[in-house]
Amino acid sequence: MSARPAGRPTGRPGGPERRRAAYRLGLAAETRAAWWLRLKGYRILARGFRVPQGEIDLVARRGRLVVFVEVKRRGRAATAAEAIGKRQRRRIERAAEAFLQRHPGLAGCRLRFDALLLGEAPWPRHVADAWRPEG
């Protein structure tokens, strides 16, 4: 009979339990971010839009502006901002292209890529125009 120290999680580090917990925390952060955007006058068009090319956490619209939002939750907002790397930004941009192809009624709208960072502060930090697509 093998003994396991009390309080130690079962399974391997990074195993299914940890992934499920991270997924739930991510969904909660996206929900909080969506409500924050609604309070700022945006209408949420999509959540968790996924295509083989990439994923967009939130797509929101306010007037003729369509915003593709990456939501990051970390212990600190600065750490969350650093977590959006060049490769991830490119995947979000490709997913945005696919989203726009599926929604031709958005042609002619201004487009923007934002980040919503959730950290230790009680309110999310909304970084408008967090990046612009390259060439």
Distance between the termini: 61 Å
Number of domains: 1
Strand content: 25-35%
CATH architecture: 3-Layer(aba) Sandwich
CATH class: Alpha Beta
The helix/strand order is: HEEEHHEE
> What is the fold-level CATH name, i.e. the topology?
Trna Endonuclease, Chain: A, domain 1
Query: What is the averaged pLDDT score?
Result: 86
Question: Could you list the spans in which at least 5 consecutive residues all have pLDDT below 50?
Answer: none
Summary, kept brief:
With 135 residues, this protein is α+β, with helices and mostly antiparallel strands. It has 3 helices and 5 strands, in the order αβββααββ.
Mind sketching the topology for me?
Blueprint: H1 16-39, E1 43-51, E2 54-62, E3 65-73, H2 77-82, H3 86-102, E4 110-118, E5 125-131
Parallel strand pairs: 3-4
Antiparallel strand pairs: 1-2, 2-3, 4-5
